[in-house]
TrEMBL record:
Organism: Drosophila erecta
Gene, per the UniProt record: Dere\GG22008
PANTHER family: DYNEIN LIGHT CHAIN ROADBLOCK
Protein's UniProt name: Roadblock/LAMTOR2 domain-containing protein
SMART domains: Robl_LC7 (SM00960)
Similarity remark: Belongs to the GAMAD family.
Amino acid sequence: MQEADTDPKRTKSYVEEVFRQVQAKPGVEDILIMNHSGVPVKTSMDRQDGLQYACLYDNLREKCQAFLSKMEPAQNLTLLRVRTKYHEVLITPDAKITVLVVQNAKDTFLNIKG
């Protein structure tokens, strides 16, 4: 089977569908979808924040990839999850797009109120 058959196309409709599905999840506060070059293509943030997050993500991705290369040379970053007391950031990069989601990290188990 050819790689093109197994790798979904990252078209505008694909990006819109991913955005819609993520936005429907409870607790999601912001979404940023970037192309393979790290340029925001769809976001719920204002333009300046989206550009700033994209730039900061690129720096973080480079450092994470360098770490992973030392640990397991053939591995690529597939998911990065960073959590603070009030927010959680999920980043899922692939070859064509990267989805960055900021969500509310309220945890009923720990009884944290945001």
